[in-house]
Design a protein that fits this description.
The complex is a heterodimer. By secondary structure, chain A is mostly helical. Chain A is built from 5 helices and no strands. Chain B has one domain (about 5-225): Spore Coat Polysaccharide Biosynthesis Protein SpsA, Chain A. Classes of the chains: A mainly alpha, B alpha/beta. The interface between A and B is medium-sized, with 34 and 28 residues.
Chain lengths: ~140, ~230
Amino acid sequence: MIAQLILTALLFGVLLYAWSEYRRSPVIGNLSFLAALAGLDFVWVPSHATRLAEWAGVGRGVDLVIYIWVMISWILLLNLHLKMRAQLELITALARTIAISNALQALKDDGRSNPPQVPSSGGDLAALQSRHREDDARS
Amino acid sequence: MSLSNNDVFVVIAAYNEEKVLAEVIAEVRGTGYQIVVVADGSTDATAAVAAQAGAIVLSHPVNLGQGAALQTGIEFALLRGAGFIVTFDADGQHRAADIGSLLGALTKHHVDFALGSRFLGTVVNMPRSRRLLLRAATWFTRATTGLKVTDSHNGLRAMTRRGASSIRLRQNRMAHASEILHQIARSGLTYIEMPVTIQYSGYSLAKGQKLSEFVTVLIDLFARRLHR
């Protein structure tokens, strides 16, 4: 009974995680949600796990529960990867802004010809970034 | 659409290319177009070599990848009022003479993208393994985008201002080549493939894509579809 309560608490934690992640990544949210629901079902109705395990050829229900836990771990790992990608996108945006701003400033300092057709570089850079934010909101 | 030299920006993404970059820039300068080199966190003298050769140099403070560098160069060129943008590899495998035919195709056929294809043109010294790899990548791109391209990973391409504005590369590394085609397909803008010459050298092969990187490309493309 104690093990069931501990597993239930952990799986409710996964449900909360699924809910919080759904907005950023619906695929991860849905997978986590389904895995946690299956886990709760198997913890409280072990016969379901046994029957499903027999049907799937896994053998024992407890093995199936372990496999589901492994699956949840993989989903969390995948999500960690996606979060790292999101961080990389922020770093990229920062590096890009620095590179473009420095180059525009250097050209201005050099007084090079071929001025931009845009009214002001700073304002246009901001406009470009604003467009990116709109793209993100749409995608 | 008409073009003058000041309208055309050639964007070159470069990471530790000090050995060949001066030669590449000198060849492109012969066309008279403006050259933008994005030194992508290079740890050698790439930025200095590019500046000395007469290019406008943008420097990423850290290495982000070719896709990120090209996007930076494209955004800079758009800010400078570019009418046409050409992407060109830094390792010397492209020929500057092909830039004119790509730009000519944009104006002649009224399309937004002119994509270079080595399989319509000429390939010099391409190893068999590389050919198979590129064929597989092209097959994958055709299957996933619906675009009937013959060369999905050719870095030599030209685009109009409208085309460049519709592109936003979020794949920092090599997957950007597939991503561009996905975005072209999604935007509904027009494109044409043009024959170009790719000349492999020991240097460009050493710097080029490996089989393991294609696996990374597939993972990147898959991961990108999982999150917003």
